[in-house]
């Protein structure tokens, strides 16, 4: 990883984050399964917004991708409810 960051435009922290969240071959970038989503929402009830703790139950998913997926699903759910309310 140390040799991967030769960018003039990124500092060390940005390179580390990019590796950890995007370039590491262990990172799972596939679509989320229903089982993974179930684990995510169940563990969120248990741990709250402790994304690094939740990531221990979702191998290959980074804490950043877990957080982003959670809030994305939450926004979609809220939009769906608001749409239903507006129809009534």
Lay out the secondary structure:
Elements: H1 12-23, H2 34-47, H3 51-55, H4 63-87
What does this 3D model show about the protein?
By secondary structure, the chain is mostly helical. 64% of the residues lie in helices and 0% in strands. The chain is built from four helices and no strands. It has helices at residues 12-23, 34-47, 51-55, 63-87. The mean pLDDT is 90.
Summary keywords:
mainly alpha, single chain, 88 residues, 4 helices, 64% helix
Q: How far is the first residue's CA from the last residue's CA?
A: 55 Å
Principal-axis shape equals elongated
Bin the strand percentage: under 5%
Mean pLDDT level: 90
Number of helices in the DSSP assignment: 4
Question: Percentage of helical residues?
Answer: 55-70%
Runs with pLDDT <50, length 5+?
none
Helical/strand content category: mainly alpha
Short description:
Helices cover 64% and strands 0% of the residues. By secondary structure, it is an all-alpha fold.
């Amino acid at each position: 990883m140390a040799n991967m960051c030769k960018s003039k435009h990124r500092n060390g922290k940005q390179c580390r984050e990019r590796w950890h969240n995007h370039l590491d071959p262990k990172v799972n970038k596939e679509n989320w399964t229903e089982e993974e989503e179930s684990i995510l929402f169940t563990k969120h009830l248990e741990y709250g917004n402790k994304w690094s703790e939740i990531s221990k139950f979702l191998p290959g998913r980074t804490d950043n991708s877990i957080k982003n997926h959670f809030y994305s699903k939450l926004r979609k759910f809220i939009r769906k409810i608001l749409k239903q309310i507006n129809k009534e």
